[in-house]
Write a structure and sequence with these properties.
Elements: E1 9-20, E2 23-34, E3 38-42, H1 49-56, E4 64-69, E5 72-73, H2 79-83, E6 86-90, H3 103-108, H4 124-136, H5 152-165, E7 170-174, H6 182-197, E8 203-208, E9 220-225, E10 228-234, H7 235-238, H8 241-248, E11 252-257, E12 260-265
Parallel strand pairs: 3-8, 3-9, 6-7, 7-8
Antiparallel strand pairs: 1-2, 1-4, 4-5, 9-10, 11-12
Helix pairs in contact: 4-5
Bound molecules: adenosine-5'-triphosphate (ATP).
C-alpha cells in the first residue's frame, strides 16, 4: 500500500473510527503530528486517549479511515519493523522489566529490543549511551540497583531512558505522571520540558488527564471526549476554560501561571 509521501508527518489519522462490540472507541478522528511537534492529549476517563495512542503506536488498526505512522500506512507495512522506530512509556505499554535486572541493563537491553540480559553482545558505545541516558534522567546513581527495588518515580525515569535508547523517531507517553507524588510529578514535568526543548528530540505525544502535567514547551493539544475531538491546535489556543469545560463536562476555569496550567471547577451553586 502507498506510503504517506509527506516525510514531516509523523502521525496522520484521517477520518478514523475504531469500533468494538458495536461501540465507537474513537469516532471520525482526523489528527496530524509533525516532526518537530510535542502534543498533549487530554480528556476524561474513557474518552479514547489510549485508543489514539495505540493507533499511533501501530498496536491497533482503524475500523474505518486511514492511519499513517512515520510515513507508513497501518495495514500495509511491517509492524514489527515500525515498532522499533517508536518509544512507548507508561500505561498499558509499560515494558515488563524483570525486577532482578539491574537499572543499567534495563536500559542497555533496549538496544536489542529484549528484556533481560542473556547472550547478546553490547559494545562500549551501547554501554556509554545507557549510562548517559540514565544520567540525563537523573538516575545514574541507581545504575547498579535492581529494577524491582526502585520507587515508581525512579522506574518511570528508567523506562524513559530505555525508550530513548534506540533513538526513536516518535515517543509516546501514556499518563507518565500517574501515581507519582507532587515532587515526583514536578521533577518529571521539568525533565519532559527539557526533552521537549531539545531540537534533536523525536516528535512526542503525551496522554494525560491533567493540565498541570503539560510540560512547558509542548506545542499542541488534542482534547477528546466520547471518542471525538473537541479541539486541536496550538496549546495556548486550545487549553481554555470553555474547551476544557466541554471536554470534561463540567464548568472549569483555566489559569496559566508562567509556563504552566492549572484548572479548577467553578464553585457549585448553593
Ligand atoms: N477492547 C475493547 N472493547 C470494548 N470497549 C473498549 C475496548 N477497549 C476500550 N474500550 C472502551 O473504549 C473507551 C475508550 O477507551 P480508552 O482506553 O481509549 O480511554 P482513555 O481515554 O484512555 O481512558 P482512561 O483515561 O480511563 O485511561 C472506553 O469506554 C473503554 O471502556
Amino acid at each position: 500500500m502507498a506510503a504517506n509521501t509527506d516525510p514531516d508527518l509523523v502521525v496522520a489519522l484521517d477520518a478514523v473510527t475504531v469500533t468494538r462490540d458495536g461501540n465507537a472507541l474513537v469516532r471520525d478522528v482526523s489528527w496530524q503530528v509533525e516532526l518537530d511537534e510535542r502534543w498533549v492529549v487530554l480528556g476524561p476517563n474513557g474518552a479514547g486517549k489510549t485508543t489514539l495512542l495505540n493507533l499511533a503506536a501501530g498496536r491497533l488498526y482503524p475500523s474505518t479511515g486511514t492511519v499513517h505512522v512515520l510515513a507508513e500506512r497501518l495495514g500495509g507495512t511491517n509492524i514489527a519493523e515500525l515498532r522499533t522506530r517508536l518509544g512507548l512509556v507508561g500505561g498499558h505499554h509499560v515494558v515488563r522489566i524483570p525486577p532482578d535486572e539491574t537499572v543499567h541493563d534495563a536500559v542497555l537491553t533496549a538496544a536489542w529490543g529484549v528484556l533481560g540480559r542473556y547472550r547478546e553482545s553490547y559494545d562500549a558505545m551501547d554501554d556509554a549511551r545507557a549510562g548517559e541516558l540514565l544520567a540525563r534522567w537523573g538516575v545514574a546513581g541507581l545504575a547498579g540497583r535492581r529494577y524491582g527495588t526502585l520507587s515508581d518515580g525512579e522506574r518511570k525515569r528508567v523506562q524513559i531512558a530505555r525508550a530513548l535508547m534506540t533513538d526513536p523517531e516518535l515517543l509516546l507517553f501514556d499518563e507518565p505522571a500517574a501515581g507519582l507524588d507532587l515532587g515526583g510529578r514536578e521533577d518529571l514535568v521539568r525533565r519532559l520540558a527539557t526533552l521537549a526543548a531539545d531540537p534533536d528530540a523525536p516528535a512526542i505525544v503525551l496522554v494525560t488527564h491533567h493540565v498541570e502535567e503539560i510540560p512547558p514547551g509542548f506545542t499542541h493539544a488534542l482534547l477528546v471526549r466520547d471518542g471525538a475531538v473537541v479541539a486541536a491546535g496550538p496549546v495556548d489556543q486550545v487549553i481554555t476554560g470553555d474547551n476544557l469545560s466541554d471536554t470534561f463536562g463540567l464548568p472549569l476555569s483555566v489559569n496559566r501561571i508562567g509556563d504552566r496550567y492549572t484548572a479548577l471547577s467553578h464553585p457549585l451553586p448553593s
